Amino acid sequence: MEDNKYIELITQYGSPLYVFDDKAFVENFNYLCNVFRRIYANYIPGYSYKTNYTPHICKLVKSLGGYAEVVSDMELYVAKRIGYESSKIIYNGPCKGELMEKHILDGGISNIDNEEEVTRVINLAKQYPERNLKIGIRINTDIGAGFISRFGIEADSKTLAKVVTMIKAQSNLKLVGLHMHVSRARYIEAWQKRIDNILQVADKYIDEIPEYIDLGSGMFGDMEDYLKNQFSISIPSYEEYAEVVAGTMAKHYASSDKKPILMSEPGTTVVSRYLSLITTVKAVKEVRGRNIAIVDCDIHNAGETCQMMKLPYTLVKCGKGKQSQVPVDITGFTCLEQDNLFKSFPDVVKVGDVLELRNVGGYSVVYKPPFIQPCCAMIAIKENGSIELVKRKETCEDIFKTFKF
User: Fold this and answer.
1) H/E element holding 135?
2) Residues pairing with 112 in the sheet
3) pLDDT per residue over 183-203, tens digit each?
4) Is the CB of residue 70 less than 8 Å from the CB of residue 92?
5) What SS3 class is residue 387?
6) What's the predicted TM-score (pTM) here?
7) Are 322 and 351 in contact (CB under 8 A)?
8) Separation of first and last alpha carbons in the chain
9) What is the pLDDT of residue 183?
């Protein structure tokens, strides 16, 4: 954007401000799908609502044919509110809410995480003996991630064998799919182990060809070189992921007339790059040799990536106030010492300057707590270039209306 456009936007909608790029998001989402479908046609992504459940974004995914992946009744509410059929909603998570049973009865996809959830599903099947119900299981396997995940049921364990036996003993309940997700394992070798392990479990425990194989999320997404170059490993492309995941699926079910749906559940993969945060420098100072600039957003607004990497940015030098020295730490409005959005920022900033931080689409809007200040507004730049307000700025009344004064 031109410098004057940044100023125009915050003048109209306030600072800080989220800006979402519809066109780039749609192009990236479609590209991911096309890359996988060229190798395995029956691929469907289920967008991860926990990453960013902004209804505007979720509706875009729905219009593009993606499923909704939710982990709570609250997220399920969003998916139903925007018009999803239950059959296109994947209900995951280790602590599902009271709506899980209704979701299953309505033909929704759900993957059980533990024995207690299995008991809930068995009881549901017994309560409705005339209904044929379907269920999936989240499995837990070692893919070389370097830690033991707390999610799912361990493959080849006595617990998994017990759970499968319980399901098969219930005549109107059928195990139709498997799910797996392991965080912090985005490299290709981990995805190869992920698909190999889940197919091995499917062959052992599912009597027929599964209806779906769901590999969760955790692929690197499209990103600017500035961010990509900060990683210590080579960033796989969508093509490389597809060759491993879709390619293995295609070979495994090559002789089968029925092809299971291959699912993944992208969140940051598809949304991170396409949301920016515009913020304004409110003060600069020097404390014992440390140069500090204070902006009107915080680390929660910017999401988790800013705590691990230096975000791509644009500095609009429109300020006329006090000037910082360099390097300068860009810090947020909170009273938290760890509220550092960009350590050792390499440019001089002045009070009144405007800073755009990019790649903030994941775990930002949904992570911002009602801490010290309400959350800011969000606009979307539509494919035709027009601007739509998709989230108004929160007010004090929004925050405190559940409290009793």
Assistant:
1) strand 133-140
2) 137
3) 888 999 999 999 999 999 999
4) yes
5) strand
6) 0.97
7) yes
8) 45
9) 84
